[in-house]
Amino acid sequence: MKFSVKTWSNGKARTGLLQLGNCPSPIETPALLLSTRKGLPCFISPDLLPSLPYPDSLLLQFSPLHFLEGISVNTISNIGGIHKLVGLNEYAFVAVPRDSVQCLPESVSTNKNGASFETPCGRCLMRPTQYMQMISSMRPNIWATLADEVPAWVSAKRNTTSVDRTVKWVDECIAHSPADGAVFGAVVGGSDIDERKRCAQEIAKRNVSGYWIGGFGLGESMDKRPALLDAVTENLPEEKPRLVCGLGLPEEVLQGVAAGIDLFDSSYIYHLTLGGFALTFPMASTETNAYSFQSTNMGMDQTKINLRATIYRKDTSPVVPSCTCYTCQNHTKAYINHLLNVHEMLAQILLEIHNTHHYLRFFESIRDTIREGKFELFREMFVERRREIVAELAACA
Predict the structure, then answer these.
(1) C-alpha dist (Å) from residue 390 to 268, 352, 393, 397
(2) Which residues contact 122 (CB under 8 A, 6 or more apart)?
(3) Exposed, middle or buried: residue 100 (CB in 10 Å: 0-12, 13-18, 19+)?
(4) What's phi and psi for 251, nearest 5 deg?
(5) In this predicted model, what pLDDT tens digit does every residue of 71-107 receive, in sequence order?
(6) Per-residue b/e over 320-349, b at no fewer than 16 CB within 10 Å?
(7) Helix (H) or strand (E) holding 204
(8) pLDDT band with cut points at 50, 70 and 90 for residue 168
(9) Entry pTM
(10) Between β-strands 2-9 and 13-19, what pairing exists: parallel, antiparallel or unpaired?
């Protein structure tokens, strides 16, 4: 793995270039990792993956814990790893112990030798040696070390313990590190700024290729989150990439980018699709240097629309007229509304394609504004407009 920072904007926001051995093209950051279940993207079959923006869609995130039942890790190893197993040899797989769809990472076990995780086959204890056996068998491009994540409301003592355990497990994972794959050291600390700093400083001393920042999206205040993110990124070397889980909303992504985060997960898209929502939120126009909301008549909050609503039953227009995704080029709101109402799985497939495509384009607009030195302007206008809309909705309620 090779990573280089290319441009900076408004302090910490930055673009970069991530090069991975099997990927035919480098990936620009900030970038989105597509969520998967056992290695395959949710609702999108492999033959439809090429319809997504290239090469922005090459990063796939998976949790090794999903493989605790079913096919054994020895079988996966004999097949040739996760790439061979799912038949996506030119895609990059990022292994993170946290489930990117169900955010239940809290370790409740008192066993200092392992973390208790909620997995598809129930709660189980995962030790670093066992975890590294799975990583060695699956051979992902990037893998994050085991972490003891805790929510924001735990006691100071429990928070300190989680940092101590995580640092200890980082050392154990590195000691059993396979020859292949770039290791991202886990950084935790809950809602305590001092513990965040301490953990970041300790992990920065380790021989890792990048950093996985855990413990976000677990009850911390959105207003206090920038200080927590800064406490981490200010204590990490600038030349290595940073990945964060749990920041999915557009406003949260912008918070992370402003703090210097390079990689984000995409559980937000999955949950929108399940609810029948389609993304319609704003993009930045780099040609006119104007930052405006598109499709303002598409929904009440100008960010997403609920295609289950009866208003779309006879709407023969695409979800977003200017969108170039497979869904918008071939289908209408009325058709997706029909599929949702008859509980046809194709509805989720078409929605996931559009939502993923739209969110990847949102990340592209973020990179464009950073390169133009106007990221903070874009962010401020985005957040301010969203506040105005929330206030208008509250006044109408």
Answers:
(1) 19, 26, 5, 11
(2) none
(3) buried
(4) -65, -35
(5) 888 999 999 999 999 999 999 999 998 876 665 544 4
(6) beebebbbbeebbbebbbebbeeeeeebbb
(7) helix 193-204
(8) very high
(9) 0.91
(10) antiparallel
